Amino acid sequence: MKELYILILLFLGSNLYAQAIRKNYLEMTETEKVNLVNAFYQLRTGADLVNDLANFHATFFNLDDSSNPTGLDIHFNLPDEPERDIFLAWHRRQMFEMEQAMQKIDSNLSLPYWDTSMDQSLSSPLWNQNFLGQFNNDWGLDRDLGDFGSLPTPQEITDVQAIVDFLVYSNTFERGTPHAGPHRWVGGRMRSSASPRDPVFYFHHTNVDRLWAAWQEVNQSSTFQRTSMIRYDGTYVFDGKTLPLVNPNDILNIRFFGTFYAVDGLSKLDNYTVSNTYNIQENFYYQFTIQAGNNFIIPSGSDCKFESVNEIILLPGFEANIGSSFKAVIDIQQNNKLSISKRGDEIVRNRIPFEDVGELVNVYDKFDNLEANIYFSEPFPNPFLNKITIHLTEKINKGEVIIYDLMGRIIKKQKVYKIDKIEITNLIELAHGIYILYLFDENNKLLINKKVIKM
Amino acid sequence: MKKNILFFCLIVYSFLELSFHKIERDTFQSEIFVRIVNESKFELTNISLFSLKFNDLNLYKASRYKVLNFNKNSDDSMLYLTANNKHFALYVSPGLLNGEYSYIIDSLSLEKRYVFITKIKD
Lengths: 455, 122
Description:
- The structure holds two protein chains of two kinds.
- In chain A, helix 3 packs across helix 8.
- Chain A is of the alpha/beta class.
- The relative contact order of chain A is 0.14.
- Chain A is 25% helix and 22% strand.
- In chain A, the strands form six sheets. Chain A has a five-stranded parallel β-sheet. In chain A, strands 17-16-18-19 form a four-stranded antiparallel β-sheet.
- Chain A has helices at residues 30-43, 49-59, 87-105, 133-138, 154-161, 166-175, 177-186, 200-219, 337-344, 363-368, and strands at 8-9, 18-19, 21-22, 237-238, 241-242, 260-261, 266-269, 272-273, 282-286, 289-292, 296-298, 303-308, 311-314, 318-320, 325-330, 388-405, 410-424, 433-441, 446-454.
- Chain B folds into two domains: 1-29; 31-121, Immunoglobulin-like (Sandwich).
- Chain B has one helix at 2-29; strands spanning 32-38, 45-49, 52-54, 66-68, 78-83, 86-91, 99-109, 114-121.
- Chain B is elongated, with a radius of gyration of 22 Å.
- The A-B interface holds A 54-55, 58-59, 61-67, 75-76, 78, 140, 142, 148-149, 171-172, 175-176, 180, 183-184, 189, 191-194, 197, 354-355, 413, 415, 417-418 and B 46-48, 53, 72-74, 76-78, 80, 82, 87-93, 104, 106, 109, 111-116, 118, 120.
């Protein structure tokens, strides 16, 4: 008879091992959110994995129209090019690379997902300044939320998930709104081939991966002709270490990485044998219900821990064999706000834009040399929250609006063409304070110079 | 009897006339023209918009308009180009209404790997 060891602990000690449950970011604890943000900032120091992954993604995005059209790439290969298709598997491995790097910083972290068909508000907690909103200014991401295209509807997700043929599924998913929509909708770096520079890229592609995992559970028919992937071909070196060769057909089941997706307050752990391949201890941490059973095996010699803030349920089919190490833990520290604030202070969040902010401009010099203000209405509303509108008494053929902060840094640039009404939008993420708005005409003549206040 | 035949012919003619106009409108709706305007400081090569290939563009030059018949299942909703030996790609959306659209390449950031564009309906 197999013996089951269950140890219920009421205190969470320090955790040195890696987390295996990916969840909607809305289901993260406040501590998890703080630590995740800290980890992104920390990854930009030293070898800078964020930038390395972005540059690689940009370089090999799609080579069809390049000088090397037969080179292996990542995106937009068609169903009749199965020898080139790699989109879903490559990004699955990319998410895992990022997640592993984060877990070296904080073992309790996993990449969360953004459910883009359900979570579409400009005021979503996702964009909160304490969460991903802060990266827009700190990393110079130039997001334009909602300006370019739409996010996928639930029906669009249902439709793509109903496709049976794998290559058609992958192609439709990639080209359609379920994948491309959030890239366009977020704007800025997310619209470009260097999109992994925006942390929300990882939230979006974890969601893409979650949907593929759900599709694979039903269809079991994903397959790739390629047996290795660029970057994961056993030759690429990052930070002095050669990344392993990965056969995309080995990672068709997300459990290969020991990873599970939690949905709507429930993390179902099943059909999995703990192997400690990637982690000395496999740690399943979730704020809500962890339910394990149906052939979830912890064999002799393996090490596994379940940890929930609320509930752990063990069902028939769950086995912890003799000689294994298994703990089930209730985390009672989550409501300790003092602890949370301390953890938030652990890492300095440096502002690290991907490019210099540009030549600093002495704002006050220009302010003193105003051109005659004959072309415009007062910017309104002022103070503003998300949008500034300016009416011109004459249509200008071409011009450019530039908003500076008081340090002379360019905060936003916007070209205008043949209009008599200028609308500058997506300003909600700007920090409270005073900004200077300039409008130049096509001859670089200053037409408008106004102080505007962000509420 | 003649009246009936005449009436029948009139109905058939009206049906054909309506169908013809509908076909015309559908065809017209699909006539979207796109071009690239290079206002960046770089010579642009390997230019592709919605999987339409464009000739290389020198500084401050515009391409000719091309008819866009976008197939969402096989065409890339992307702008691709090369400048300074670097590849750039940007997610874009085709115009929904018929007409002529200019995709103006305002500038390129080589370090950010970003294309700054403005899309205008001419």
